[in-house]
Amino acid sequence: MKPFFQKLVPPTEYSIIFHEEELPHFIVPWHYHPEIEILRVEESTGTCYIGDSIKAFTAGDVCLIGEDLPHWWKSDGIYFEEGSKLNMRAHVIQFRKEIFQTQYHPLPEFVPIHQLVERAKRGIRFLGESRTKIGLQIRKIFRKEGMARIAHLLLLLDMMATENEYECLASIGYTQNMQTSDFHRFNIIHEYLIRHFSEPVSLEDIAAEACLTPSAFCRYFKHRTGKSFSQYLNEFRIGHANRLLAESNIKISTVAHECGFNNLSNFNEQFKKIMNLTPADYRKRFLHE
């Protein structure tokens, strides 16, 4: 599935889109747009795909998505069940980076915001107390109108630019790829992994998806991501394992199987290499936090 381009049209009286969404579940699939997006989840749980990153999301999560960065907020299966009374709610703000520029260069006061926009090319998720403070400011914005709303948006961006509890999501290699002419090819690979990561993934099969020979695929993939395909695939699978460990009490051996690892010892080894924790310790730490 190729990410589709979304053309966002703000109301004629505004240059920035402020949208409060309430639906049974998130409905927009894998997509991208030139607007920078701030999204705060008010209600819902699920998985967010941002570039080549996979993270669980829950109520209170705040993300900043850079221009043209593919993303997908996918609600949990329970939200799609017949008769479900669950809903998703989210606050969304979308704007072009040009609104903070003068004709020739950014105003000095806006330099931190421009640095924030550069970091957002990989997607940013805020954590800890920063997440809470930023979430409160977003709610405040939606209680304002007109210039007061714009003024509070500037305060929000300045807050985001100076907070230090955050993580960048997409890999550097992924964002470099976004500037190239083979955008479509890399996203074919990414979509193939979303569909098949829990199964054995052969180099021959995924190379064929990208219309490359296995040796050419390995060179291409290393150049685009800075990682071998096997390393990337393991990180992709561990991203899903993190969610299963955090949100369920299923056995660790079952988690390993559902994430595409054919034996527990290999899963434990790869998990510790990537997360610097054993799966059991990760689950304990998450529950404690």
Q: Report the span from N to C terminus.
A: 36 Å
Number of helices: 11
Spatial strand order of the main sheet:
2-9-4-7-10-11
Could you estimate the helical fraction of the residues in percent? 40-55%
Structural class: alpha+beta
Largest sheet: 6 strands, antiparallel
- Roughly what fraction of the amino acids lie in strands? 15-25%
Shape: globular
How would you summarize what this structure contains?
With 289 residues, the protein is an alpha+beta fold.
Question: Overview of this structure, please?
Answer:
There is one protein chain. The protein is built from eleven helices and eleven strands. The protein is α+β, with helices and mostly antiparallel strands and 289 residues long. Strand 5 and strand 6 form a beta hairpin. The two termini are 36 Å apart. The strands form three sheets. The protein has a six-stranded antiparallel beta sheet with strand order 2-9-4-7-10-11, with helices on one face. The protein has a three-stranded antiparallel beta sheet with strand order 6-5-8. Strands 1-3 form a two-stranded parallel ribbon. Helix 2 runs antiparallel to helix 3.
Pick out its properties.
11 helices, 6-stranded antiparallel sheet, alpha+beta, 11 strands, 3-stranded antiparallel sheet, 289 residues, single chain, 18% strand, globular
List the helices and strands and how they pair.
Blueprint: E1 4-5, E2 17-23, E3 31-32, E4 36-43, E5 46-50, E6 53-57, E7 62-65, E8 71-75, E9 88-95, H1 111-119, E10 124-126, H2 128-141, H3 146-162, E11 166-168, H4 172-177, H5 183-196, H6 203-209, H7 214-225, H8 229-247, H9 252-258, H10 264-275, H11 279-288
